[in-house]
Amino acid sequence: MTALLWLGALGSWLFVVTFTLDGWTRPGYRPVRHPVSALALGPRGWVQGANFLVCGLAITAGAVALGGALGSVPLAAAIALFGLALVASGVFPMDPMRGYPPGTPDTTPEAVSTRHRLHDWAGALVFGLLPICALIAVFVLPDAGWKWYSAVTATALGAGFVAFSQAWEHDHPRSGLVQRATIVVGWVWLGLVFAYAAGQAAGSAA
């Protein structure tokens, strides 16, 4: 059980590290403007594609053990769905647009593929489920500090999702930055929840 929980923590944090390093070093990619999902496009797109799949599966596996460690099936189920939505985001990559990959018109296409629409739905689940997870944690985690941290995280994620949606809709030049800030807040919190649960599980087994 403890190993699965640490796997969930690693998947949460590795996701952030991977897209950060890949975005900084990808030719033609602008992290401040372009979304994380655009990294799944182009010759090096397999890196972010694998990031979605591997980290999503790691988080889902960690969620399997989370219910027993924290005594909350709803929290574990919500996190498992979040992980599966990440996997779906990798299975169905977005369409090229807004100048990436290099050579793509710097506009938003009038029509998108079915694959892109499926990616959008998966992304809506990703960004919609995580604040729900944090809200559930407010009622599940026993420590007052964790309750406050989870409440602040849920609020920040909800606000971040709305801000990113508006920025993306209007092709704001800092859309990618808004999305990244939201992801870092949420994924760091999730990894810490897994680490907390692993500590609880280890203490119970001792």
TrEMBL record:
Keywords: Membrane, Transmembrane, Transmembrane helix. InterPro entries: DUF998. It comes from the Bacteria. The chain crosses the membrane at residues 44-66, 73-92, 121-141, 148-168, 180-199. Pfam families: DUF998. This is DUF998 domain-containing protein. It comes from Nonomuraea corallina. The lineage of its organism: Bacteria, Bacillati, Actinomycetota, Actinomycetes, Streptosporangiales.
